[in-house]
């Protein structure tokens, strides 16, 4: 029946899903519990204390109840042993002193003796007089009271009877066999622990009979139950007490630790005046507080010292800046005025005017770069970030570098990939400076071969790679390329100008953006510089949208191609009358 | 008539050099070497423009600028040796129209000075409206519902530039070129600071501008006439 089987399978599927859901919930609960357990020292302390407490109380309870039970039962068994022996002796006496003619009289005698035993010994629950050979209950067996007859097979086990017959064979008639058993009260239908004691008696006209007494251990059982109840209550009380004590103690010990952690966190957040209270005592916690506060003091002092140093350095930089710049401005203006009037000078003075003008400019750039670097060192560089498209910055830089590129006959191409998508938060002044530096460097080292600028982006970052196919760098040179005043080839670069600080500043600028500036190069194959910027503050860069090391060592455009710049497509803001206003 | 330029600088060599350059451009420089003397000089000589050094003995340039601005709308150009953001913004917020970082080229100085002195008067009366503001370009007055609003010449120029083409969005670079006379892209903070100052004077609620609107990521435009 396909219908039924499909129903079955769908039912199984439902069950499976349900089971999976339940498992999921359980796993989640377990995880949450594990997390809570790992997160809280107090919870751990309390749990371990309670587990130890439970184990200790359980062991103690077990020991107590076992030893009390054993002691009690042992004494009771001794009493039962002597009592049953006395009963047997008494019964034997009665049998011997009676005159019995036949088996019927013997039967009557047995019944009356058993009844008398039951009457005289109040602790005996039942008396069995059993014919020794029969494994099944015999007609001649006497059972007092009658109601216990149904339990004969259960009470008088084969083992018990075998032991009894062994006693008889050894003629150890004054010894008894004993076995624990369970006695069922037929009226109240209760099962209580009991003991069966047995031996043999000689009955006139009937020969040897086995005699068994059934004792109930009900009173002992009751005492034990009572004792267990008392012990259980006591254990619960003790455990509760342990829990309370642990909670209190852990509160006392963990609370200062928690407080210390909170204060440490506040310190880490820059609240340097935060201190731990309770440092006046002599206990461990006070010692902790004192050491902690001493640490905080020293930390605060160091930070303040650093701040003062940094402030002093900033002030120095600012002063130097002002003091140097004012005379430099005068020199500059004087130089320019002389330079403008150089036609009226003799050739030597005219050339001097030109040199003066050029070198003053160089001096100016060097001073500006030095001040920029010292601002980074003083931690005084401020990021003035706004949302901008890296593609726009790159395009404008390349357009500005175009005259230089044409002058050096270097074809320069820009690949914007998808224009308008490289938007990120950055300081346009700094990023423009980095890109300009990379592009101008590439043009100067390209030796007439192409320079390729690629802008790329992914979800987290925007990047630009500037690649040239010029002289290139060795691996050692790449390592030092961002060092201050480092020059790959002093003789050559000196002529093209530059302060030797450009790439160092670019590197610092990139770092200020939490971005990366990386270099690659091989002698004769050219060099590649990659700037990667996170799209927003708080993004940590793990990768870049574009590879630094190029796949190909041949330029994509041929060298004789005219310089190409792909302008950014899309609307020019100033030309659009009905732009949406935010 | 020659325009008179007050040069406030304690460095006499630089002041003299600036004087040489300005005279070469047909301007008439007068000099003041400390901060305390600047305000009285400005009062007595009524210069057409003030070149003001930031670091001065006596009162510093920012303070002097604030005092002059309190009683006059005369164009003020700060000479600053500091290009750090805080110093520049502080100078601009004290009321300076423009700033030049030392060291500067003579041409640069002249270009800025001339841009501030330039008064391009259009032939015939011209009246503009932005939001609920009336701008009388010829009479050089700005009124809201008949009530006059005092603006410095620079703020006035900025407003007029925006109001003449209310359909156009101006980037900061374009405004720098048209109002300040910069030919290359320069510090766009100039524009931001002055737009804030202009707004504080003409907007009913500067937090919610209706006259000078920001077009995010692009620049500024004038509000529609009401």
From TrEMBL, chain A:
Protein name: Sensor histidine kinase MtrB
Subcellular location as annotated: Cell membrane
Residue spans crossing the bilayer: 43-66, 230-249
Major site of localization recorded for this protein: membrane
Catalytic activity entry: ATP + protein L-histidine = ADP + protein N-phospho-L-histidine
One Pfam family here: HATPase_c
Organism: Myceligenerans crystallogenes
Membrane topology: Multi-pass membrane protein
EC number per UniProt: 2.7.13.3
Repeat keyword on record: no
Chain spans, region Disordered: 560-582
Automatic annotation (TrEMBL), chain B:
DNA-binding region in chain numbering: 125-224
InterPro entries from the UniProt entry: CheY-like_superfamily, MtrA_REC, MtrAB_MtrA, OmpR/PhoB-type_DNA-bd, Sig_transdc_resp-reg_C-effctor, Sig_transdc_resp-reg_receiver, WalR-like, WH-like_DNA-bd_sf
Transmembrane domains' residue ranges: none
Family matches, as CDD domains: REC_OmpR_MtrA-like, trans_reg_C
Domain OmpR/PhoB-type: from-to ranges: 125-224
Record's keyword annotation contains Transcription: yes
Identification of the protein by name: DNA-binding response regulator MtrA
Lineage summary: Bacteria, Bacillati, Actinomycetota, Actinomycetes, Micrococcales
Gene: mtrA
